[in-house]
Design goal:
The complex is a heterodimer of chains A (307) and B (371). In chain A, the strands form two sheets. Chain A has a two-stranded antiparallel ribbon. A two-stranded antiparallel ribbon of chain A has the order 3-4. Helix content of chain A is 73%, strand content 3%. Chain A has a single domain, classed as MetI-like (MetI-like fold, Orthogonal Bundle), CATH 1.10.3720. Chain A is built from 14 helices and four strands. By secondary structure, chain B is of the alpha+beta class. Chain B is built from eight helices and 20 strands. Classes of the chains: A mainly alpha (307), B alpha+beta (371). Chains A and B meet through helix 9 and helix 10 of A and strand 6 and helix 2 of B.
Chain lengths: 307, 371
C-alpha cells in the first residue's frame, strides 16, 4: 500500500488535491449550479421556489418591468442597471484611490532598512485583527451627525466664533467610498510592497547613471517593475468591493444600494431567492468580464502570485 | 582638451556604522586619472575602492574634499547630471526591457533623436558582439552576454569616463580572462577613460595603464603594472601584488638608489634596491619575489648568498615551487623548469643542501608598514 503510494505519482496528485477539490465541488460548484437553476425559477407566495425555466428575473434585472403606472403593460425601469453601474463605479473609484494611497506607502516600506520593514508590514496588518464589521461601525461613530468629526469641527468653529452646521457625511456615497478604501487598503499595500521590494537599489542607480531624473526613473523603472503588484492588488480589491454589502449597508444606509445589498435584500427581506440568484450570477459575470479584460491587458500579476 | 579626466582632491568619505562608530571608508585620497587611461583601483574588500568609484559616479558625496570630472568640481551633483556611466557589478539590467531598450535607455533620457538612437544601439550591439540579440530580454542571456549588454548600455552614451565596478566578478575564470582582453582592446578602440575597480590583482595588472593600490581608505601606491610589481613602495603592496618573501631588518646604509640592512635572523647584511624612503637605523622590510631567487646546488661565495636546506618541492608543470629553510627562515623559491627531463636528479629534492642567492638588483628594501 505504502509502496504504491510512494511510486504512483498520479495517486499522490489525487490525494494532494482531493481535500480542496471535494470542498470546492461541494461548496462552490454545486451551489453555483443550484443558483443557476434557481435563477430561472419563479418565486411562490411564501418566498419558496417554483422550478421552471423563466427568464423573467434576468429581464427584470436589465430593466424590463411589468409593474408600471398608468396602466401600461410594460415599461423600462433602470433601477437595477443603476445599481450595477454604481457598484462598478464605486469599485473603480476605490481601486484607484487605494492604489494612489498604497503605492507611496509600499515604496516607503520597501526602501526602509530591512530590519524596520517587518515592523511596518506588521503595522499595516494590525487593522485586520479587528472584525471587519466592527471597523465599519467605528466609521459610523466618526461620520455621523453627532460623531467625532463633526464634534471636532464644531469645537474648532467654536474657537473662532464661527457658525457651524454639522456636515451630513454618513449615508452618502462618499462615506461608502471612505469605508471601502479603509477596508481594502492593506490588500493593495502588500502586493505592491512585494514587487517593489524586489527592485534592487542598483536599478535605481543605473537609471540615474544613465541620465534619468527621479521622475523618469519612476515612470520607466519603478512603475513598470511594480506593475505585477498593482495588478495583483487590483484583483484583490476590485472583486470584493464589487460584491461586499456590509460597508454600504452600514455607511450608506438606504442611500447607497450596491449589487451586494440588492442580493442580500432579495434573500433576507424581499424573500425572492430566484431574483437574488439571478442578481448573484449577473454580479459574477460582470466581475469576470472586467477582470478578464483587465488581466488580458496587464496579466495576472504572475510574478507576485509566484512568490 | 584637458589632460586630466577625473581628479579626486583630498577626498574623505565617512560612514556611520550600525554600531554607531564612524568609519572612514575613504581617507584623504588624491588621484589624477588621465584622459584615455585605463586606470584601476585595486584592493581587498573594504579598502575604499568602490566608495571612491561611487563618489565619481555621484551615488555618494564626499564628506570632505572634491571630485573633479574634466576640470569641473562635481560637488553634490546627482548622478544623472554627470558625464560618466557605470557598469555595475551585478549588471543592474532592466529586466522589464529588452536588450535594445536597455541600451537605448540613456540615449532616450538625453533626448537623442529616434533614428540616431536606432543607429547607435545597433552599433553598440555589434561592438559587444550581440548583434541579433536586441529583441531578447536580459534573463534570456548568459552571464557573459548580460555583462556585454551592461557594457554596451554604458558605452553607447559616449561618456567622458566609464566606471566599472568589478564587472567580471560574477563570470567564471575562462570567460573572465577572455573578457579582460576584450575590455582592454575595446577601451583602446573607443579611447574612453576607464576607471576599473577590482580586487583581482592579476586582472588589474593585465589591463591597466596605471593602478592605484588601496588599503584602509588610503592609496598605498600608484603606478604602472611594472612599477607596482617591480618597485612596491611598502610591504603591503609587495605582499598584496604577487607573492614575496619578507625579511625584517634594520637599515644600515642608504644610497640614492640602493640601501642595505642587517638581518638579525640571518646574522648578515643584505643589500638591495631602495624602494621607498629609508633612514639608517629604521626597521625595514626586505622583499624578494620567489621567481627572482636563484638556487645553486654548490657553494657560491657571494654577498647576499645563504646556505639552506630544501624543505619541500612541488612540481607544478611550468615551475617547481621550492621551500628552503635558511637558519629557521622559510623562503619560497620558484624555479622555472627550463629543461624537459624525466630524471628526478634534474630537480631539487627534499633535504638537499642548497645555496640561496638573493641578487641585490632583485632585492627591495622598503617601509615595514603597519598593515
Amino acid at each position: 500500500m505504502l509502496k504504491k503510494l510512494r511510486e504512483d505519482k498520479a495517486l499522490q496528485g489525487t490525494l494532494l488535491v482531493s481535500p480542496t477539490l471535494l470542498f470546492m465541488v461541494g461548496l462552490l460548484i454545486i451551489p453555483l449550479i443550484l443558483t443557476l437553476v434557481i435563477s430561472f425559477g419563479r418565486r411562490d407566495a411564501d418566498g419558496g421556489v417554483i422550478y421552471t425555466f423563466s427568464l423573467a428575473n434576468y429581464a427584470r434585472l436589465i430593466g424590463f418591468s411589468t409593474n408600471c403606472s398608468n396602466g401600461v403593460n410594460f415599461c423600462w425601469d433602470t433601477l437595477y442597471v443603476d445599481i450595477g453601474l454604481r457598484s462598478l463605479v464605486l469599485a473603480f473609484q476605490t481601486t484607484v484611490c487605494v492604489i494612489l494611497m498604497a503605492f507611496p506607502l509600499a515604496y516607503f516600506i520597501a526602501r526602509a532598512e530591512p530590519k524596520r520593514r517587518n515592523t511596518f508590514l506588521f503595522l499595516v496588518l494590525v487593522p485586520l485583527w479587528t472584525n471587519f464589521v466592527i471597523r465599519v461601525y467605528a466609521w459610523m461613530m466618526l461620520l455621523r451627525t453627532q460623531g467625532v468629526i463633526n464634534g471636532l469641527l464644531g469645537w474648532i468653529a467654536g474657537l473662532f466664533n464661527l457658525p457651524f452646521q454639522p456636515l451630513d457625511m454618513l449615508y452618502t456615497p462618499g462615506a461608502v467610498l471612505v469605508g471601502m478604501i479603509y477596508e481594502f487598503l492593506p490588500f493593495m499595500i502588500l502586493p505592491i510592497y512585494t514587487s517593489l521590494e524586489k527592485i534592487e537599489n542598483s536599478l535605481y542607480e543605473a537609471a540615474a547613471d544613465l541620465g534619468a531624473n527621479p521622475i523618469f526613473t519612476f515612470l520607466r523603472v519603478t512603475l513598470p517593475l511594480a506593475l505585477p503588484g498593482i495588478v495583483a492588488g487590483t484583483i484583490l480589491v476590485f472583486i470584493p468591493v464589487m460584491g461586499t454589502f456590509i460597508v454600504s449597508d452600514i455607511l450608506g444606509g438606504r442611500q447607497v444600494i450596491l449589487v451586494g445589498n440588492l442580493i442580500q435584500n432579495q434573500f433576507l427581506s424581499a424573500r425572492d431567492p430566484t431574483f437574488g440568484s439571478a442578481a448573484s450570477l449577473i454580479l459574477m459575470v460582470l466581475t469576470l468580464i472586467v477582470t478578464y479584460f483587465y488581466t488580458r491587458k496587464f496579466g495576472f500579476g504572475e510574478e507576485i502570485i509566484a512568490v | 582638451m584637458n589632460e586630466i579626466a577625473v581628479e579626486l582632491r583630498d577626498v574623505v568619505k565617512k560612514f556611520q556604522t550600525p554600531e554607531g562608530t564612524v568609519l572612514s571608508a575613504v581617507d584623504h585620497v588624491d588621484l589624477q586619472i588621465k584622459n584615455g587611461e585605463f586606470f584601476s583601483l585595486l584592493g581587498s574588500s573594504g579598502c575604499g575602492k568602490t566608495t571612491s568609484l561611487r563618489m565619481i559616479a555621484g551615488f555618494e558625496w564626499p564628506t570632505a574634499g572634491e571630485v573633479y570630472i574634466g576640470d569641473i568640481p562635481m560637488g553634490h551633483k546627482p548622478p544623472f547630471l554627470r558625464p560618466v556611466n557605470t557598469v555595475f557589478q551585478n549588471y543592474a539590467l532592466f529586466q522589464h526591457l529588452t536588450v535594445q531598450e536597455n541600451i537605448a535607455f540613456g540615449l532616450e533620457m538625453h533626448k537623442v533623436p529616434k533614428p540616431e538612437i536606432t543607429k547607435r544601439v545597433g552599433e553598440a550591439l555589434e561592438m559587444v558582439k550581440l548583434a541579433g540579440m536586441g529583441k531578447r530580454k536580459p534573463k534570456q542571456l548568459s552571464g557573459g552576454q548580460q555583462q556585454r549588454v551592461a557594457l554596451a548600455r554604458a558605452l553607447v552614451n559616449r561618456p567622458s569616463v566609464l566606471l566599472l565596478d568589478e564587472p567580471l566578478g560574477a563570470l567564471d575564470l575562462k570567460l573572465r580572462k577572455e573578457m579582460q582582453i576584450e575590455l582592454k582592446s575595446l577601451q583602446q578602440e573607443v579611447g574612453i577613460t576607464f576607471v576599473y575597480v577590482t580586487h583581482d590583482q592579476e586582472e588589474a595588472l593585465t589591463m591597466s595603464d596605471r593602478i592605484a593600490v588601496m588599503s584602509h581608505g588610503k592609496v598605498k601606491q600608484m603606478g604602472s603594472a611594472v612599477e607596482i610589481y617591480e618597485r612596491p613602495n611598502c610591504r603591503f603592496v609587495a605582499d598584496f601584488i604577487g607573492e614575496s618573501n619578507f625579511l625584517r631588518g634594520k637599515v644600515t646604509g642608504v644610497e640614492r638608489e640602493t640601501a642595505s640592512a642587517f638581518i638579525p635572523e640571518l646574522n648578515a647584511e643584505i643589500s638591495g634596491i631602495r624602494a621607498s624612503d629609508l633612514i639608517v637605523g629604521q626597521t625595514t622590510a626586505v622583499s624578494i619575489r620567489p621567481e627572482k631567487i636563484r638556487l645553486s646546488p654548490s657553494s657560491v661565495l657571494n654577498h647576499n648568498c645563504f646556505e639552506g636546506k630544501v624543505v619541500t618541492t612541488t612540481y607544478i608543470g611550468s615551475d617547481t615551487h621550492i621551500i628552503v629553510d635558511i637558519n629557521g627562515i622559510r623562503v619560497k623559491v620558484w624555479e622555472q623548469n627550463k629543461i624537459s627531463s624525466l630524471d628526478p636528479k634534474a630537480y631539487y629534492y627534499q633535504g638537499q643542501q642548497v645555496w640561496v642567492i638573493l641578487f641585490p638588483e632583485n632585492t627591495l628594501l622598503m617601509h615595514e608598514d603597519e598593515v
